[in-house]
Amino acid sequence: MTFFLFLFACIAAGSTGMIFKPGHWYTTLKKPAFTPPDWAFPLSWSLIYLLLAWAGYRLTQQPGSATLLALWALQITLNTLWSPLFFGAHRLRSAMTVLLALWLVVAAMIALALPLDSLSALLLLPYLLWLSLACALNFSILCHNRS
User: Fold this and answer.
1) From CA 121, how far away is CA 114, in angstroms rounded?
2) How far is 105 from 99, CA to CA, in rounded Å?
């Protein structure tokens, strides 16, 4: 049951991507050559959210994981904010700030989870890698599409 609570939180966060879709505005932006194809985003996020829910569930089973669980809650909150800022409000700089904070929180989670539950730390690595790509993409779009 606990796993499904984490999964529900991930689905709720992911739903902002369904509500605030890229749309015409996004297609008109100058994007870097390393921009993944459109089909890669839902596929990647589906996998990341499953791994994130699994990591969150595993962390609830570990004594001394209160800080990690607080960070889990913080990262899902930041995750939820990005799509409305970027796609909804077209606030590239604010979205970049949220994304950098999110990257730092997930990196901290990995570092803190490693000695407590190495599998949870490993489950978070694809998330951090995707966030790294997202940061580079967001930054490039910000630099090449100043309004």
Assistant:
1) 5
2) 10
Q: Residue 140, Cα to own-chain centre: how many angstroms?
A: 18
Instruction: Using the predicted structure, report yes or no on whether residue 1 has a pLDDT greater than 90.
Output: no
Question: Residue type at 3?
Answer: F
Single pTM value for the model: 0.94
* Interior/surface letters 99-134, b for 16+ CB within 10 angstroms, e for the rest: beebbebbeebbebbeebbeebbebbeebbebbeeb
Question: What is d(CA 17, CA 72) in angstroms, rounded to the nearest whole number?
Answer: 19
In a domain, 26, yes or no: no
> How many CA atoms lie within 13 Å of 48's alpha carbon, on the beta-carbon side?
19
Domain count of the chain? 1
Judged by DSSP in three states, 131 sits in helix
Ordered alpha helix ranges (H), 32-117? 40-60, 66-83, 92-116
* 17 confidence band (pLDDT: 50, 70, 90): confident
Q: Domain containing 72: what range?
A: 2-14+37-144
- pLDDT given at position 112: 97
Whether residue 23 lies inside any domain: the answer is: no
pLDDT at 85: 97
